[in-house]
Amino acid sequence: MRGGGAKTVRAWLIVGTALAAGLAPPARAQAPAPAAPLPSAGGAAAPATPPTPELPPTEVDALDDDAATAAPAPEFVDPAFGPRYVIEEIVVRGNRRTKEALIRAELGLTTGDAVLASDARVEAARFRLLSLGHFVDVRLSVQRGHRRGGVVLVVEVEERGALVINELYPSTSAATAFWGGADVSDTNFLGRGINLGAGVVASTKPIVLNAERGLGLRLHGTVPERPRGFGLSATALYNDGSEFYRLSGNDDDADPGRFTSVNTRRAGGVVGANRTLTHALRAGLDLRGESVDARLPPQRARTFPDGSTAPIDFDVRDGASRVATAAVTLDYDTRSDPVLPRSGVRVVGTVELAVPGVSSYTYAKGLVQASLYAKMPRGHALGIHLLGGAIVGDAPYFDRFFIGDLNLLLPRRALGMNFSTLPSRNLLDTSIAGHRYDDYAARALVEYAIPVWRRKGLVYGGDLFAAVGLLGMASDGDLSPPGGLTWSKLPIDLTGDLGLRLDTYVGIFTISIANALSRSSF
Amino acid sequence: MDARRLARRLVALLVALLATTSPLGRARADEIPRRTTGLALTPAQLVVSVGLQDLFGPEDRDRLTSGFVTRVLIRVALQEEGSSDPVALAFQRAEIVYDIWDERFRIRLTRGAGPELRVEARTPDEAIARAATLWEVPVADAARLRPGATYVVAFRGDLNPISEELMTDVRRWLVQPARGQRRVGTGDTFFGSFVSIFVNPRLEDSERQLRFLSQRFDVRQVRVMKEKR
User: How far apart are CA B93 and CA B118, in angstroms?
Assistant: First the structure.
C-alpha cells in the first residue's frame, strides 16, 4: 500500500472532522468497584455445575495476551429472549443529508415485520447502515404502538462528514520538478449514498525534449449495490501530457536529456456494473471508450552506445485514434479484515478486450492479482502477493504494463500519467533497466507484518512490515534473445518495502522506504 | 549512487522511528489496571466476586430502554503469575431487555454450562448491577491450586459482543466498493491502486470492553467459606 506520506496531510485535514464527530476517549477502568451482594435470589446462587475449564482457549493474540481474552467467547445461543414485536411504523431521525429511502432500503426491516427483542436482524441492520460510511452512529429502538405488541421502530442516525480525500500526488523527479494534485470524493452525494469524486493532477513542464506540462482530470461516481440489484460506476477522464522515450545512452541512464516525448491527449470514460454473486465473489463489467490524439516527436530513432540506431516504437498512433474495450472482473475475497488482514485470500482477475471495428488498437489484456494471508505466532501475519498479466496485440502504451506500477521503489503513474524517466533499480544486475512498458508482467511479494500496538483512539494500531519480492517484465522476443537467455539478459528485479503501517480512524498511513523513494525519484 | 545513499538514510530514520514506537507494545501489558477482587475458597472451589458496572457508559445506560436486548459477556481466567497459560476459565453471560409495556427490565443470567437464571429489575442501575456483577462465581477447583504459588485473576467484560458470523458479514460489507469507500482502479493505475478508507470503523468484537486484573494472591491467604446449604 502506497501513498501514505501524502496521507499524513490528509490525516490532519480530516482529524478535525473526526474530533468534531465526538470521538470518545478510550474506556478506562474506574476505581475498584466492590462486589455488591444482590438482595434477591439472583447472583448469590452459585451455579449447580462448575464452569467449563475444558473449553480450549482461543489463540492468544500477542497484543491481547491477557488470559481473560484467551478465554473462548461463548455465543448467546437462545435468540428467543425478550418480547416479540410487530412493527407498525418506522421512523428515521437525525438524517439531515441522507435520504430516508436509502436508510430504509438498508434496514432490511419493514412495516408489518415481526421481530424479537433479541433478533439478530436488528443488530445486522445497524451494522449494515454503519458500513455505508455515512454515519458516526446508528441506534435502533422501539416505542409503544397502538396496541400491545405493536411498536414504532425508531432509527436514529448521526451523520458524519462525507468529503474524502482519496489520494494526494505531491512528487518530484529528475525529469519533472513537481507534479501534484488530489482525488477527492463526496461519499454521500445528494444524500443518496452516491460516491461522486474528482481528481486532478498537474505538472511543471518536464525538462525532456518536446515535453509539455501535464494535466490529468477524472470525474468518477459509483452507485452502491442494492439488494437484488447492481452497483453502477462511471468515470470520465481527460489526460494531456507527455510520455518519455529514450533517444540515447545506456538503459540505466535516467538523464532527462537523453529522452524525447510523445504528447498525448486522451478523453473518454468508463461505465460499469457490478454484482455480488456469492458471499465472497463479485463480478463486474466495464465498457471503456477513449479518443486519443498523439503527436509523435520528429526524433524517431534511438542511438545506442555502440553507435547503432533503431526506430523507436511509440506504441501509439500518430494523430487521432480510438480505444474501445470491454472488461470483465471477478473478485473473490475471504480476507479476515479489509484493512489489516490476518487470514484469507483475495483474488482479482480481469480480462479486457478491445472492441473490433471500433477500437484503433486490437488487443486483449489479462491480469490476475492474488493475495494470501496466514496467521503466524504471536499475532504476526504472513502475506503472499502474486501478480501476473499479459497483453496480446497492439495495446497503446498507456494500457501496457509500466515498470513504475510494478516496482514499489519507483514512482507510479498519477491518474495514468508518468512524470519520471527513472528506470528500475536493477538490484540484480540484469536487463531490467531497459524495460519501461511491456506486454507481460509478473510479481511475487512476500510480506511479514508484526503488530506493534493496538489500542483505542484515533490510531487503532500499527504494523511493522517488511516486504520483498521479485518482478519481471517482458515483451515478445525478450525471453529468447540472440545468444541465448543468460542471467544478465533476464528482465527481472528485486523490489520491496520496509516501514510502519498505521490503521487510523481516518484511513491507512504508511511510513516506508518505498513511499519516500517513489515520491522523490532521482 | 544517490538513491542508495538516500535509502540508507531512510533505513536509519525508520529504525530510529521504530525504536521510539516499539516500547508502546511492550508497555501495554502494564496498562491493564488492577481491581480489588473478592476471593474465597469453598471446600471445592475458588470463587470470585467483583463489579464491572463501569462497563456501561452513560449512553449505554440510556440505551437500555431501547426495547432490544443488551448483552454482557464477562470472561474470567485464573493464571499463575509469570505464566500466560490460564489455569482455569469461566464466564458469565447476561441479557437485559426493557419491557416497554410493563416498564421493567428483564435479565437472564447464565454461568458456564450452568442453569439460566431470570430476574427482574425496576431501574437501569439495578439491571446493570445484576448483569455486570460477578458474585461468588466459581473459577477453579481448589485442588488445582498450589499453596505457595502466586495467582492472579484476569477479567474481561464485553458489552454487546458481536457474533463471529455478523463480524464476517460486516467485513464483507466494508470490502465492497462504494461501501467502505474502497475502490480498485481500472486500467491505468491498476497496479498502484491502494486502499482508501475514510470511514474506517475499526472492527472490535464488542461495543465496549473492560479489562482488569485482580490483586495477586496466594491460595493460603484466601478466605475460606463455609459450604452453603
Answer: 12
Q: Which of A162-171, A459-468, B88-97 has the lowest mean pLDDT?
A: A162-171
Query: Nearest C-alpha of chain A: how many angstroms from B157?
Result: 9
Report the distance separating Cα A329 and Cα B186, nearest Å. Answer: 10
Question: Do residue A315 and residue A464 come from a single domain?
Answer: yes
* Domains in chain B, CATH or no CATH each: 1-31 (no CATH), 34-161+205-229 (2.60.40), 163-203 (no CATH)
Residue A146 lies in a domain: yes
CA distance to partner chain A, nearest, from residue B42 (Å): 11
Considering the entire predicted model, what is its pTM?
0.69
Residue A38 host element (H or E): none
Interface pTM, i.e. ipTM: 0.75
pLDDT in tens, A70-114: 555 555 555 577 889 999 999 999 999 899 998 998 898 999 999
The helices-and-strands tally (H runs, E runs) of chain B is 4, 11
Q: B53-69: b or e for each residue (b if 16 or more CB lie within 10 Å)?
A: bbbbeeebeebbbbbbb
Residue A70 covered by a domain: no
CB contact under 8 A, A453 and B10: no
At residue A263, φ and ψ (nearest 5 deg) are -100, 120
User: Is there a single domain that holds both residue A451 and residue A502?
Assistant: yes
Which chain A residue is nearest to residue B142, measuring alpha carbons?
Answer: A50
* pLDDT over 70 at B114, yes or no: yes
Contacts B71 to A, Cβ<8 Å: 76
Probe site for chain B from A128, A131, A347 (most B CB atoms < 10 A) = A131
What is the CB neighbour count within 10 angstroms for residue A226?
12
Q: Which of A290, A339, A520 to mutate to test the interface with B (most CBs of B within 10 A)?
A: A339
Instruction: Please give the residue range of the domain that contains residue A341.
Output: 162-521
Distance from CA of B225 to the nearest CA of A (A): 13
Of A35, A74, A404, the CB nearest to B38: A35
Based on the structure, what is the number of domains in chain A?
Answer: 2
Check which CATH number belongs to the domain holding A434 and give it.
2.40.160.50
